[in-house]
């Protein structure tokens, strides 16, 4: 099975130390031949070279395979186009250094293309699986006359390079076999294409099938993400003489290979063990969006999207809308506003796979600004970007139409696309409006805010006093009053005796739970109407303020997604609010209970999300008083008999005049896991801090998990961080509660997750307002329009704790925390 060459035994001492271990040699010289049945074995014993027959063929080929692997896995074939028909072939090295395969009549069946002559040529199989020809006396171990790594077949081994030598004009590329029985060059090939700027291309014949890149200084961005491949170290070399992509293995004991299979799928394989065999580490193409140019020019492919293709954004329209609806996206999109060339602008698009760079130009040292000017100079320049994201330098500009773009939440890149100046005006207007509003806020918060608060307090005092007096008078007179008598007031006052009767003397069997400022009881009025009674506990110092607060607000609010206040009762030292009774209690009761959560199917959950959104929209924008709830959480969402959500607990709510959007408080009160960073840390609250809490709620509803206390075994992220991570990896659906059956509603689920993530973004300005949220949730067709969320606030558990510990903090049993902040500036 193996052979050792007679006279060279003693000349080749070093390699033979390895060889003797395996009982085989790795080297032959001009006097030696390898016959069919004999083999060379690489030092270390990983690879073996010899004659073989592929599949069911009887033809003989010289090839290389893994020696120590039970499954015959050929990684290289010498004479792939010219097989031997019998077993009489031999392999040898002829002077001045050509590797040849000879047939029975000593005819050359195949030969290496060695162009340099040396005196003592030897062929040696190296430990990496590289078969080389070199001079026996040559000291430089890397000086080869020829190497099989320059002539790969369908397999890329660690240590190989893919690319071009511009001096010799030779390209190293992979090509598939013709069939399992025939290793001749097949249809598919895998190239490093140096046109424009280097990219990896999979081709069928001469047609591009898939594309990865351009190289961004670290890797060729595109799913799958080779950054996550711990076994390889990728490198890229490019100058006038050559362009090569190389991958070196980090742990040489690892057995892995990268192949181009018969049907055009390239795969990275890893040998696990005898029982599991070869396992695919990743495959390219991996999804529909890997199809080259699927969405045409300025189209963007989105794996989760239905349909998969959409225009880059609303500034583009399908070129042929009829084709577009038939799922023929090949004509792509066009700008809705034509370019003028002279005064165009550039708009930023991020989270994408950069377009095909074969028609591009680059410079390694230019700054981004120089890059923009360069692009502006030429009317056919359509976009530019930073070339090297690692060094943050260089310039890459694209000419003509931009094709083969896909949205990529993980590893997505940024490019600046040339647009008509009219498209920018909209954005700039919005920006300057934003600026103005900021200034306005600053002044309004200080002036109007105070005025409103003062007026509000006066108003509170006024009714409170009036009612108290009213009550006092009646009480003094010894008369109880009932609902009817209070017709003219905003809200009825209940008599304590009515409440006592309804709740059976506040019997513990009627206790529904513990709210922010005291227990809540169920009751039934004489007419049979069920009520919930919030009773202020006597220990609660802040409770009375909160109760008043709630009374003021909720009395003025009417919306089907807000809990309805029926009245109140203040008598002696008892203070109570009376609500309509919600038979299904609160959302947390269902959501975080393993069995009850099953009752919440997706339709119900989506309905709940939408209901809360509408309720909040009403509070923020449509109600008479603009109200910030400040304590939105699952336990404050009550559910009626049909599982419609109703926002409750306005104890912490604050009202604002029409123009204000933000204020600061010294007393930060809210609930762990739902508080936005700017509120918890700086005491800044705005409608956007409610939006944050809403986002947390949405993610909780989708996942069925609490943000607070959520920990994932693989990383230290909380629910927000986890969801964001998955979204970046394009695996959003994994966030969803595994008990949900969402096969037919993936679009809604994905939309909800996207919206949730937008709402919990770190920066309040990035978060949408509730009207956009309601719009995004509802608008099915526009799902692709939802922008990509940036990093969420408080996305690691530790983040929360350390930030909060830096403030003095008190926590009470109901999970609420109070942080006393320094005096605002
Ligand atoms: C060959 O494989 C066996 C078992 O898979 C392993 O124990 C042995 O070390 C391997 N030998 C070499 C030279 O890799
Ligand atoms: C060889 O032929 C047999 C029978 O025709 C078939 O089942 C088998 O898959 C073939 N093997 C290969 C590698 O093509
Ligand atoms: C082929 O070459 C070998 C060695 O040079 C020689 O011994 C043999 O006779 C040759 N065979 C034929 C058929 O010429
Ligand atoms: C050996 O190869 C030569 C050259 O390729 C060819 O002419 C000859 O017919 C082959 N002989 C056999 C027995 O295949
Ligand atoms: C050897 O090189 C020549 C030109 O240099 C080329 O035409 C030929 O195809 C090459 N042969 C092989 C087997 O690579
Ligand atoms: C190539 O790989 C893909 C993905 O693993 C597989 O579905 C396909 O059958 C393979 N093609 C062949 C001809 O083995
Ligand atoms: C944009 O340009 C195209 C072709 O140059 C023209 O047909 C079209 O009417 C132009 N559209 C607008 C809005 O000017
Ligand atoms: C790249 O840009 C820099 C600065 O503009 C310039 O000095 C340099 O010559 C350019 N290099 C190439 C190759 O164009
Ligand atoms: C703009 O770029 C294209 C593509 O490289 C080139 O053909 C054309 O000559 C350039 N035009 C100008 C004015 O530089």
Automatic annotation (TrEMBL):
SUPFAM superfamilies (UniProt xref): alpha-D-mannose-specific plant lectins, Protein kinase-like (PK-like)
Coiled-coil positions: none
CDD domains xref list: B_lectin (cd00028), PAN_AP_plant (cd01098), STKc_IRAK (cd14066)
GO cellular component assignments: plasma membrane
Cell cycle keyword on record: no
Subcellular location: Cell membrane
Keyword Electron transport included in the entry's annotation: no
Domain Protein kinase, residue spans: 506-794
Reaction equation(s) it catalyzes: L-threonyl-[protein] + ATP = O-phospho-L-threonyl-[protein] + ADP + H(+); L-seryl-[protein] + ATP = O-phospho-L-seryl-[protein] + ADP + H(+)
Start and end residues of each Bulb-type lectin domain: 25-146
UniProt KW keywords: ATP-binding, Cell membrane, Disulfide bond, Glycoprotein, Kinase, Lectin, Membrane, Nucleotide-binding, Receptor, Serine/threonine-protein kinase, Signal, Transferase, Transmembrane, Transmembrane helix
Membrane disposition: Single-pass type I membrane protein
Record family assignment: Belongs to the protein kinase superfamily. Ser/Thr protein kinase family.
PANTHER family: G-TYPE LECTIN S-RECEPTOR-LIKE SERINE_THREONINE-PROTEIN KINASE SD1-1, RECEPTOR-LIKE SERINE/THREONINE-PROTEIN KINASE SD1-8
The protein's name: Receptor-like serine/threonine-protein kinase
Species annotation: Erythranthe guttata
């Amino acid at each position: 099975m193996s052979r050792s060459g007679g006279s060279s035994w003693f000349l080749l001492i070093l390699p033979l130390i390895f060889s003797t271990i395996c009982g085989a040699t790795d080297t032959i010289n001009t006097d030696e031949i390898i016959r069919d049945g004999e083999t060379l074995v690489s030092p270390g014993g990983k690879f073996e070279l010899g004659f073989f027959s592929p599949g069911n063929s009887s033809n003989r080929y010289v090839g290389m395979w893994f020696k120590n692997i039970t499954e015959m896995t050929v990684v290289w074939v010498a004479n792939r186009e010219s097989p031997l028909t019998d077993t009489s072939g031999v392999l040898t090295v002829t002077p001045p250094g050509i590797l040849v395969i000879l047939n029975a009549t000593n005819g050359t069946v195949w030969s290496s293309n060695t162009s340099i002559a040396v005196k003592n040529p030897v062929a040696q199989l190296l430990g990496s699986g590289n078969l080389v020809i070199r001079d026996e006396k040559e000291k430089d171990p890397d000086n080869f006359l020829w190497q099989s790594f320059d002539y790969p077949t369908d397999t890329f081994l660690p240590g190989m390079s893919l690319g071009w030598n511009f001096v010799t004009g030779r390209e190293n590329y992979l090509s598939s076999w013709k069939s399992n029985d025939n290793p001749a060059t097949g249809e598919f090939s895998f190239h490093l294409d140096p046109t424009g700027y280097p990219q990896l291309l999979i081709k069928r014949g001469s047609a591009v099938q898939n594309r990865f890149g351009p190289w961004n200084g670290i890797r060729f961005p595109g799913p799958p993400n080779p950054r996550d491949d711990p076994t390889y170290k990728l490198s890229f070399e490019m100058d006038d003489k050559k362009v090569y992509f190389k991958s070196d293995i980090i742990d040489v004991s690892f057995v892995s290979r990268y192949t181009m299979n018969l049907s055009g799928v390239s795969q990275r394989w890893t040998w696990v063990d005898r029982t599991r065999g070869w396992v695919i580490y990743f495959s390219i193409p991996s999804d529909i969006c890997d199809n080259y140019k699927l969405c045409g020019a300025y189209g963007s492919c989105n794996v989760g999207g239905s349909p998969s293709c959409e225009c880059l954004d609303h500034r583009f329209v399908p070129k042929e809308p009829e084709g577009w609806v038939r799922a023929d996206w090949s004509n792509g999109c066009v700008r809705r506003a034509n370019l003028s060339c002279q005064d165009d602008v550039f708009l930023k698009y991020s989270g994408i796979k950069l377009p095909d760079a074969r028609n591009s130009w680059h410079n390694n040292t230019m700054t981004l600004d120089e890059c923009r000017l360069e692009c502006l100079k030429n009317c056919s320049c359509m976009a530019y970007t930073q070339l090297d994201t690692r060094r943050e330098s260089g310039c890459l500009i694209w000419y003509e139409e931009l094709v083969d773009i896909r949205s990529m939440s993980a590893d997505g890149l940024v490019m600046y696309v040339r647009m008509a100046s009219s498209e920018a005006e909209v954005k700039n207007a919005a920006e300057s409006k934003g600026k103005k509003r900021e200034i306005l806020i600053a002044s309004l918060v200080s002036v109007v805010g105070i005025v409103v608060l003062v007026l509000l307090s006066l108003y509170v005092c006024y009714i409170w006093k009036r009612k108290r007096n009213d009550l006092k008078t009646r009480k003094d007179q010894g008369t109880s009053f009932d609902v009817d008598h209070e017709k003219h007031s905003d809200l009825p006052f209940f008599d304590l005796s009515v409440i006592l009767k309804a709740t059976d003397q506040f019997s513990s069997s009627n206790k529904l739970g513990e709210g922010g400022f005291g227990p809540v009881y169920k009751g039934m009025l004489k007419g049979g109407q069920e009520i919930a009674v919030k009773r202020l506990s006597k220990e609660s110092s802040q409770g009375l303020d909160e109760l008043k607060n709630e009374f003021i607000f909720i009395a003025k609010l009417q919306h089907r997604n807000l809990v309805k206040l029926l009245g109140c009762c203040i008598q002696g030292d008892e203070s109570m609010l009376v609500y309509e009774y919600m038979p299904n209690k609160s959302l947390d009761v269902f959501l975080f209970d393993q069995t009850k959560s099953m009752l919440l199917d997706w339709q119900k959950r989506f309905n709940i999300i939408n209901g809360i959104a509408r309720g909040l929209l009403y509070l923020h924008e449509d109600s008479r008083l603009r109200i910030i709830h400040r304590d939105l959480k699952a336990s404050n969402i009550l559910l009626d008999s049909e599982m419609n959500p109703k926002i409750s607990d306005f104890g912490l709510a604050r009202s604002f005049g029409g123009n204000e959007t933000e204020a600061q408080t010294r007393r930060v009160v809210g609930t762990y896991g739902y508080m936005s960073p700017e509120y918890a840390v700086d005491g800044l609250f705005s409608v956007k801090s409610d939006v944050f809490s809403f986002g947390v709620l949405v993610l909780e509803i989708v996942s069925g998990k609490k943000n607070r206390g959520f920990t994932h075994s693989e990383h230290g992220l909380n629910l927000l961080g986890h969801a964001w991570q998955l979204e970046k990896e394009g695996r959003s659906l994994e966030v969803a509660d595994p008990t949900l059956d969402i096969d037919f509603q993936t679009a809604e689920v994905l939309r909800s997750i996207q919206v949730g993530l937008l709402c919990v973004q770190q920066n309040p300005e990035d978060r949408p307002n509730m009207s956009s949220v309601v719009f995004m949730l509802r608008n099915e067709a526009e799902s692709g329009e939802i922008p990509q969320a940036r990093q969420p606030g408080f996305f690691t558990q530790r983040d929360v704790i350390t930030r909060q510990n830096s403030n003095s903090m008190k926590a009470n049993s109901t999970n609420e925390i109070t942080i006393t902040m320094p005096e605002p500036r």
